[in-house]
Amino acid sequence: QVCAQLCRRPCYCPWVPPRCPRGSPLVLDGCGCCKICARRLGEPCDFLHVCDQSQGLVCDYSSASAGTGGTCNFEDDEEGCEVNGRVYRDGEVFQPSCKIQCRCLDGGFNCIPLCQEDVRLPTPDCPYPRRVEIPGKCCPEWICEAQDQHLLPDARAAPGAVSPLLRYPCQEWGTEWSACSATCGLGFATRVSNQNRYCRLETQRRLCMVSPCPALPAAFPA
């Protein structure tokens, strides 16, 4: 009876089929007449506007009032997740972009980054590192910029003094000194700090000694 009310015979379809959004294939409508875009997860549906069966979706009328359409949902409450218009099965691994990789899990998804989130500290051969986007590459890369012309080295400045050429107040920041590298005798302790003339992060070292090393036993006589 429903088919007789909604389906016209003979059926007439537009010459050009509709252009579907990404992840929505062309399928026959409920009358088996014209090609339409399959409805995706969470979209409204009815007898004519069918859901994407290739993704395991059916028209769910359980929460719809009488006489209204339903909503595309998984058959038998099968878990899945939708990202950018595409539905993924539970346990399926996918990449929404080249920078992250995700796994569909229990109706949601967990993602991990594929680009390294490392931090490059200033070094003598690269005093001003900067991370930039490289055309044609997915992950940003570190480059070494030329020294700022506004910051001129002054060998006569006192150690640790902030250069008067800085045009902004320097908010001092630094980590705690690390443990001594040697358990006895002289060693090194390190920290990361911007307490220098140019207010730039750098790795700093200082000598340390936890305790003197015990004397070596005297050699036995031959």
Automatic annotation (TrEMBL):
Molecular function in Gene Ontology: heparin binding; integrin binding
Gene Ontology terms: biological process: cell adhesion; positive regulation of cell differentiation; signal transduction
Keywords: Cell adhesion, Disulfide bond, Secreted, Signal
PROSITE patterns: IGFBP_N_1 (PS00222), IGFBP_N_2 (PS51323), TSP1 (PS50092), VWFC_1 (PS01208), VWFC_2 (PS50184)
Domain IGFBP N-terminal: 1-75
Compartments it resides in: Secreted
InterPro entries: CCN, Growth_fac_rcpt_cys_sf, IGFBP-like, Insulin_GF-bd_Cys-rich_CS, TSP1_CCN, TSP1_rpt, TSP1_rpt_sf, VWF_dom
Domain of life: Eukaryota
Boundaries of every VWFC domain copy: 79-145
GO CC list: extracellular matrix; extracellular space; nucleus
Known role: May play an important role in modulating bone turnover. Promotes the adhesion of osteoblast cells and inhibits the binding of fibrinogen to integrin receptors. In addition, inhibits osteocalcin production.
PANTHER family assigned: CCN FAMILY MEMBER 5 (PTHR11348:SF22), CONNECTIVE TISSUE GROWTH FACTOR-RELATED (PTHR11348)
Family: Belongs to the CCN family.
Name of this protein: CCN family member 5
Organism this protein belongs to: Polioptila caerulea
